[in-house]
C-alpha cells in the first residue's frame, strides 16, 4: 500500500523525480498499472535498473526482505535507497540511504500535539 501511495503521488514529478518502475511479488498485481506504470515482477528489478539508468529505489517492503532487495538494487547500480521498510539499512559507502521511520515521525507529531495542547487537558 505504501508503494502504491508513493507511485500515485504527483508532487514527485513536479520536483523532478519520475517514478519509472514498480515491482512486486504478488501475481495479482503483476501486469496491472499504477499511475500508468505497469507493475513488474521483482525478479525483473535488476535488469530494469540497468536498462533504465535508475538512480533511486524506494523500498516499501517487509523487514525480512529489505536487506536482500537493497543488496540486489545496489549491485544493479542504484545510487540511493529511500527505505520505508522497518529495517535500518546500512549498505556500501557508494550508496546514499535515507531510512524513513514512520513511527518516529508519528511520535514527533504526538509529542508536538501533547506539548501544544497540554494546558487544554488540565482545564
Low-confidence stretches: none
| Number of extended strands | 6
Q: How are the strands of the biggest sheet laid out side by side?
A: 1-3-2
Structural class by secondary-structure content: alpha/beta
What's the number of helices? 5
What is the terminal-to-terminal distance?
A: 40 Å
The largest sheet, given as strand count, sense and whether it forms a barrel, is: 3 strands, mixed
Roughly how much helix do the residues carry, as a percent range? 40-55%
Shape: globular
Q: In percent, how much strand structure appears in the residues? A: 15-25%
Return the string of H and E elements. HHEEEHEHEEH
Radius of gyration equals 17 Å
The averaged pLDDT comes out at 90
Outline:
With 123 residues, the chain is an alpha/beta fold.
Describe the protein.
There is one protein chain. This protein is an alpha/beta fold and 123 residues long. Helix content is 41%, strand content 18%. The protein is built from 5 helices and 6 strands, in the order ααβββαβαββα. The chain has helices spanning 2-8, 11-14, 45-51, 63-75, 102-121; strands spanning 22-24, 33-34, 37-41, 56-59, 80-83, 96-99. The strands form 2 sheets. Strands 1-3-2 form a 3-stranded mixed sheet. It has a 3-stranded parallel sheet with strand order 4-5-6, with helices on one face. β4 (56-59), α4 (63-75) and β5 (80-83) form a beta-alpha-beta unit. The model has no long low-confidence stretch (mean pLDDT 90).
Amino acid at each position: 500500500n505504501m508503494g502504491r501511495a508513493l507511485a500515485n503521488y504527483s508532487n514527485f514529478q513536479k520536483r523532478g523525480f519520475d517514478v519509472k518502475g514498480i515491482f512486486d511479488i504478488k501475481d495479482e498485481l503483476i501486469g496491472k498499472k499504477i499511475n500508468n506504470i505497469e507493475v513488474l515482477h521483482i525478479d525483473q528489478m535488476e535488469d530494469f535498473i540497468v536498462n533504465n539508468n535508475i538512480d533511486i529505489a524506494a523500498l516499501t517492503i517487509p523487514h525480512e526482505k529489505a536487506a536482500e532487495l537493497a543488496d540486489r538494487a545496489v549491485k544493479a547500480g542504484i545510487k540511493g535507497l529511500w527505505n520505508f521498510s522497518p529495517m535500518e539499512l546500512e549498505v556500501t559507502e557508494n550508496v546514499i540511504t535515507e531510512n524513513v521511520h514512520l513511527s518516529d515521525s508519528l511520535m514527533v507529531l504526538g509529542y508536538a500535539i501533547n506539548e501544544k495542547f497540554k494546558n487544554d487537558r488540565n482545564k
